Structure formats: C-alpha cells, structure tokens
Amino acid sequence: MAILPIHVLGSGVLRQEAEPVTEFDDELRTLVADMYETMDTALGVGLAANQVGIARRVAVIDAEDSRFVMINPRIVEKGSTIEGAEEGCLSIPDAYGEVKRPTSIILEAQDEHGAEFRLELEGLRARAVQHEIDHLDGIMFTDHLSPLKRQLLLRRWKKEHEDDGLTWLPTPEESETAG
Ligand code: ZN
Q1: Ligand 1 centre from 24 Cα, in Å?
Q2: Rounded-to-integer distance, Cα 103 and Cα 113, Å
Q3: Per-residue pLDDT in tens (0 to 9) along the chain, 179 residues
Q4: Catalytic pick from 132, 160, 162, 173?
Q5: DSSP letter string over 85-142?
Q6: SS3 state of residue 166
Q7: Which residue ranges form the domains of the chain, and what is each CATH number?
Q8: How far apart are CA 130 and CA 102, in angstroms?
C-alpha cells in the first residue's frame, strides 16, 4: 500500500468529470487500498479518486461507523429535509464553509469486486457521500457557497497557500478532518 499525493485547488483533475469503472481488477483494488491508507493518514472522512489525480468513479468513506468504498456511485433518492453544516476538504486544506444538503439519501454503488450494494444513509454519512460524489463530477464544496462567501474563502485560501504547489503528501502529523 502507498500514501498517494493529494491534489489541491488549482489542479485540473479536480474539475474533471471522472470516468465510470468497467474493470474490477487487481489494479483497481490496489488503488482502493491506497486511497484508504491516504484517507486514514490525512484523517479524512472521505476521499475521491480525483483527489489523488485519477479521474475514475471511485471514492472511499469513513464516517461515523461506516467505512466502505463506492464505485460508480449513484444517489437514487434524496430526503426532503435540507440542512446546512460546515464542510472541509482535503483538497482545500484549512478552509471551511457551510453547505446545505439533503440530510438523508439512498446510495447505490459497486464494491471493489463489482458487486452492487444499496445503503440508506443520513447525517454525516449522507453528507460525506454527497461531497465525494460531487468530486467525481468535478464539483468542490465551495461551489455550493454564495458567490460572496466563496470569493472571500478562496481569496484568503490563495493568499495562505499559493506557495504550496498542486499536491501535498499527508503525514500522520496532519490533523484535519475533512473530505
Ligand atoms: Zn473534498
């Protein structure tokens, strides 16, 4: 297993729409294992393949007591209750903003062997899944903020991080909890 470099804002792959996975082979399973290790080291609640530079529809989640990989994920139902909560992102370190999302969803996806599964999720788990599926569509959480909040957040972030380059390697000393 390996810890993969995480792409940060400014890296083009974060804006790419990821391609569906069609081959459920050892290469895919290695990617999934590496993504788990990278998410755990960065203390994230989720990580999408775009964030490690690979535009394929793969994401891992570790939120509350749910830990799973979702491949080719689809949200097939959204609850009618919408709530705002603060979100962060491993690809925009140290930036947080309130995002409104449905509080419950039904997810359909495949596991690393191609088996279909269906999960009813709510709370942080539902939020993490929606955040990661956004990544697979090239959407960042900041896209959900009002134009003014987005501008302020991005201006401050660029000022503080413009010398960081396009990727960073998480280390056990990093201690953000984000997706
Ligand atoms: Zn994110």
Answers
A1: 24
A2: 29
A3: 799 999 999 899 999 999 999 999 999 999 999 999 999 999 999 999 999 999 999 999 999 989 999 999 999 999 999 999 999 999 999 899 999 999 999 999 999 999 999 999 999 999 999 999 999 999 999 999 999 999 999 999 988 887 778 888 887 665 555 66
A4: 132
A5: EEE--TTSTT--EEEEEESEEEEEEE-TTS-EEEEEEEHHHHHHHHHHHHHHTT--GG
A6: coil
A7: 12-163 (3.90.45.10)
A8: 9
Q: What is the DSSP letter of 21?
A: P
Distance, CA 51 to ligand 1 centroid (Å)? 8
pTM for the model? 0.93
Q: Is 19 a catalytic residue?
A: no
Does residue 5 contact residue 168 with C-beta atoms inside 8 Å? yes
Spatial separation of the C-alpha atoms in residues 101 and 1, rounded to whole Å: 34
What is the whole-number distance in angstroms between the Cα of residue 135 and the centre of ligand 1? 7
Tokens matching residue 132: 């990661």
